[in-house]
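Fig. S4 source data, part A: sequence.
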Amino acid sequence: MKGFGPGWVIVMVALGFVALLVIARRMPRRSSGPTEVPRATWPLTRNEQAMYYRLQGALPDLIVLSQVSFSALITARAWSVRNTFDRKRADFVICEKSFKVVAIVELDDGSHDGSEARDERRDDLLIGAGYRVLRYRGIPNIDRVQAAFAPPPIPPAIDEAGRIDPT
């Protein structure tokens, strides 16, 4: 063929080499060492266990769920949006007996230091979906938990003259 010289062969060999590199990078890698075997772990840390029992004791008429996937709480059609939350978990989800979510409780400890912006983004996802998020730094006492879940006080009835109705 006229016009194809030795340079053409070099270009074709180089393209073939690049194609092989691309294919090799996309193939699953095999470990030459021993394969890691999954191991059991505790579902809750010691602090989370203490918080779980605190929530159960303070809220006996509600259901306390722990380590709930955000995907069980929120959804989206677009995979790009789902990817923003599909690997996240809420520490505790507090539900009525019907399993209607009352609030999501997050327990912050020293591991959250410096990650306030990340925590805020997580809260914004949940709040944007319509959830109430309570974040505690350390394990609160029972009174504080019960106060957070107490119904708001009923405002007094006011008559036509603007006076509080005593009944």
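Fig. S4 source data, part B ends here. The longest helix spans residues 6-26.
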